[in-house]
């Protein structure tokens, strides 16, 4: 194995490298994160006891929640 250091990318650096988007929202009773690159993405959020998710593609936007 090499001694290469692992470096964390900020959301701005990720946008520059892959043209993607990272959104994190945290409010009272709601926490969510969305990651997307080139029109494809995934979002996960928790609110009022439910865990929800969403898959985004250029042709569809599928989401669902599990209480």
Provide structural commentary:
The mean pLDDT is 78. A 5-stranded antiparallel beta sheet has the order 1-2-3-4-5. It starts with 10 loop residues before the first helix and ends with a strand. It has one helix at residues 11-18, and strands spanning 20-27, 30-37, 40-47, 50-56, 61-66. It has one domain (11-66). It contains 1 helix and 5 strands. 12% of the residues lie in helices and 55% in strands. It has 67 residues and is mainly beta.
What's this, in brief?
The protein has one helix and five strands. With 67 residues, the protein is mostly beta strands. The longest helix is centred in the first third of the chain and has 8 residues, at 11-18.
Short key terms for the protein model shown above:
67 residues; mainly beta; five-stranded antiparallel sheet; 1 helix; 12% helix
SSE diagram, text form:
Elements: H1 11-18, E1 20-27, E2 30-37, E3 40-47, E4 50-56, E5 61-66
Antiparallel strand pairs: 1-2, 2-3, 3-4, 4-5
